[in-house]
Every structure is written in C-alpha cells, then in structure tokens.
C-alpha cells in the first residue's frame, strides 16, 4: 500500500491491516499498557468477562489483576478513583459501561477531573481517559442509547473525542492516554463491529482537535462525527448520483474541535449541513453553527441546517425514526441547495 499522510496523524500509513473499530480500541489499550506500566484499566466487568461489549477481552489475562480489574457498580467511585490515580502518577483508563450511566460520576468529572490543574495552580494534573459506549442503533432504549456528549463539551478542562473509523479509534485513544488532560472518549457502539478499515501495523497517534475530510466537494459541506458518519457517506453518494458535489467532514474531536477545517470547507461550498444523533436542544453542533455564522457569514449562500435526534427520551424500538438516517440528511441538503 502506498504510504499516505493524513492531517492529524503522526507518521505515515505504511503497512496496514483491516480490523473493526472495537478491535482497534482493544489494540490501543493493550499497546499502551505494554508501552507504559503506569496505564491501568478498570470498570464494571472489564476483567475476566472483557466488558459488556468485549472491548477489554483478554487484557486481564495479559496484564494481570493488579492492572486490569473490576469495580463495584458505582460510577462516582470509578471516576473518583481515576482522578486519584491520575493525580498520584498513574495513567488510568476508566470504563463506564454505557454513556447513559455517567450521571453518578458527573460531579467527579465536573468538579475534580476538569478543575484539578487550575485549582492547584498547575501543581496537579489528571491525565486520565474515561471510555464509554455511546449512541443508538442497537435498540437499547432510553438507558442504553443516549448521546450525552454536549454535557462534557460544556465542561472546560476536559477533552471530548468520538471516532468513527478503526484508524481513528486506535490513534485517538493512544493520543488520549498519552496526553496530560482528562479525556472523555465516546465509542459509537453501533460501529463497534460494523466499521471496518485499514489500520497501520506500526505505532501511531491521531492528534486531538483535527478533523478529517472524508471526501472533497464543492457544492455543500456535510459535517458530523461518531455513529452518523456512515449515513453522511450514504447521503453524499445519493447526492453525487444527482450531480451534486458534497464535502464530508468528520470532526473526530469535539473539544478541541477543528474550526479551521470547517470554516475552510464552508467558505468553499457556501452551504453547511450539520449532523449528529444527540437531541437538538443544546446539541454541540449548535456551537459549530454559531461559529460558521459568526466567522463565515458573508460566504454563506444558505442558512446552516442541523439534522439531529429528537428532544425526547430515546425510544426502544424506533431507532430508525429517531436517528438521522440518509433520507433526513439528503432532505436537509436539498433544502440548503434550493435556498
């Protein structure tokens, strides 16, 4: 394979192999635990069972019970322990079984992990990663399908990441583990085994805060992250069949997010459709929309349009209605193009 250089990736692709997104997560953790003895992994059922989705399968056998261990069913304790370990020099990876369950640990994230560097005047830091499966698409209902990323993007002091490909899942997780700040690492569960892709065989990282242009276009910018990215690609394919050139951007990282990439794309195309599966009110994409209208207003040929989930508890059996599928995305693009 020809070596390629992608924005945000340290090194070249070189020799690659095809794996799933969940395999990429497992590999990233294993390689970082092998590289750095300070890395520890813990959470509900992550040990012998390997986690509810098997993302940590085999890691306890490989690294022992002192570095990979189960915890009580207490998210506040899991996050609090991670903060304490990080402050004392370890590199903890804490798994919250579902993003929906992060609520009990929210104060530890908001008041401790996010603020420790500032409240201590830089004497202490909390280099830790909270991993959690997020989003819908698996008919998990309102306690196993939420997309709560906006709560954490509104929390200064933490970084927020959500990959959509195996390549990015591995590279972003490695970068998060090696970083000096707390990172909330959302894993789109519907892509765990559905997303397959090329991953370098050598060590690499994907820098946080840099978007990926999945396809170039000139008529409209289609911007998303996480589990919706395959739907963006399908929508772009459908529009391409009608002669419409769509640029597809995967944010990958929400805090920090790549304003330059978004603005450069919108200044070129003049139209932007923003897609996520979180509820519409308070959606992180509202920040992206505001930035576009503030800094690229004169370049716009149409209003910025957002396609999102609905402002309701997540339905058990109506995933396809709730989630922004290709049809809803295409309809929004047509509105922008016909404005």
UniProtKB/TrEMBL annotation:
Q: What is the lineage of its organism?
A: Bacteria, Thermotogati, Deinococcota, Deinococci, Deinococcales
Q: Which organism is it from?
A: Deinococcus taklimakanensis
Q: Name one GO molecular function term.
A: oxidoreductase activity
This chain belongs to the protein called 3-methyl-2-oxobutanoate dehydrogenase (2-methylpropanoyl-transferring)
Q: Which cofactor does it need?
A: thiamine diphosphate
| PANTHER family found in the cross-reference section | 2-OXOISOVALERATE DEHYDROGENASE SUBUNIT BETA, MITOCHONDRIAL (PTHR42980:SF1), 2-OXOISOVALERATE DEHYDROGENASE SUBUNIT BETA-RELATED (PTHR42980)
All copies of domain Transketolase-like pyrimidine-binding, residue ranges:
19-194
- Which superkingdom is the protein from? Bacteria
Q: Which Pfam families match?
A: Transket_pyr, Transketolase_C
InterPro entries assigned = THDP-binding, Transketo_C/PFOR_II, Transketolase-like_Pyr-bd, Transketolase_C
Could you list this entry's UniProt keywords, alphabetically sorted. Answer: Oxidoreductase
This entry's Enzyme Commission designation comes to 1.2.4.4
């Amino acid at each position: 394979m020809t070596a390629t250089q992608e924005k945000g990736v340290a090194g070249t692709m070189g020799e690659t192999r095809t794996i799933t997104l969940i395999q990429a997560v497992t590999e990233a953790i294993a390689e970082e635990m092998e590289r750095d003895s300070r890395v520890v992994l813990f959470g509900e059922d992550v040990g012998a069972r390997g986690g509810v989705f098997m993302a940590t399968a085999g890691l306890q056998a490989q690294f022992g019970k002192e570095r990979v261990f189960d915890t009580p069913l207490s998210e506040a304790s899991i996050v609090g322990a991670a903060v304490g370990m990080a402050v004392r020099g370890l590199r903890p990876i804490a798994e919250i079984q579902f993003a929906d369950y992060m609520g009990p640990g929210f104060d530890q994230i908001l008041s401790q992990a996010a603020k420790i560097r500032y409240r201590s005047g830089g004497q202490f830091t909390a280099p830790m990663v909270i991993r959690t499966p997020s989003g819908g698409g698996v008919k998990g209902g309102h306690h196993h399908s939420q997309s709560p990323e906006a709560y954490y993007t509104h929390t200064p002091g933490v970084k927020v990441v959500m990959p959509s490909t195996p390549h990015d899942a591995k590279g972003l997780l490695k970068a998060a583990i090696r970083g000096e700040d707390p990172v909330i690492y959302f894993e789109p569960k519907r892509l765990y085994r559905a997303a397959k892709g090329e991953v370098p065989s050598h060590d690499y990282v994907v820098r946080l805060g840099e978007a990926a242009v999945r396809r170039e276009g000139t008529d409209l910018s289609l911007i998303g992250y996480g589990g919706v990215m395959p739907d963006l690609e399908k929508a772009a394919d459908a529009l391409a069949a009608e002669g419409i050139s769509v640029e597809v951007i995967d944010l990958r990282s929400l805090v920090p997010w790549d304003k330059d990439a978004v603005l450069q794309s919108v200044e070129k195309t003049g139209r932007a459709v923003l897609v996520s599966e979180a509820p519409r009110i308070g959606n992180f994409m509202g920040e992206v929309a505001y930035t576009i209208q503030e800094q690229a207003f004169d370049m716009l040929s149409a209003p910025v349009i957002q396609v999102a989930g609905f402002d309701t508890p997540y339905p058990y059996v109506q995933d396809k209605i709730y989630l922004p599928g290709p049809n809803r995305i295409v309809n929004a693009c047509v509105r922008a193009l016909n404005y």
